[in-house]
Amino acid sequence: MKANQPFNIVLLGGPGSGKGTQAKLIKKKYGLVHLSTGALFRQEIAQHTEIGVIAERVIDKGNYCPDDLTLNMLNKHIEATGHATGFIFDGVPRTIEQAKKMDGINYSPAVPVSLVIYLFVSDEEITKRILRRANEEDRSDDKDPEVIKQRIANFHKLTELLVRYYAEQGKLLTVSGMQSVDEVFHDIDAIIAHELII
Description:
Layout (H helix, E strand, L loop, with lengths): L8 E5 L5 H12 L2 E4 H10 L3 H11 L6 H14 L6 E4 L5 H7 L12 E6 L2 H15 L7 H24 L3 E5 L4 H17 L1
Parallel strand pairs: 1-3, 1-4, 2-3, 4-5
Helix pairs in contact: 1-8, 2-3, 4-5, 6-7
């Protein structure tokens, strides 16, 4: 890791893979800032910002927000945090185009990625976790088996390309998300500690 360069981690994983939980644990131990694009978009929409107004129209139609809009919002929040040690990105990049733009290809400013951690969870386990969360939080959209199947299919379609992209860059490490929360964090912690001392 280069001195004075932010240590930025991307968490990849399907719905219910535990990205949010692990991001909190990483943040607590390493002092990194957790930026979840889902949470940021909800914040922008609630505040009726220019980004929020556009995002709400797109999301209401069931579409993903355009790459530039997502990255403009991300950079806005990165700048607002001042001199952070680094960031944990959860929900971005979602597409290969976003990943390339984060690398500075046809987009500025670049958002350099130091490490990508892929939380692998089987489709069967993802389905179980989504249903459990739906019952606990009374999320009706997560109770429809067809919707769940579609979400998993969309995840694979987009994420497999990202996994390949970052593997080719030598930045990808896979952790089994099928373990307990503590066991998953133990594996992630070992990876981060190793990267920080190289």
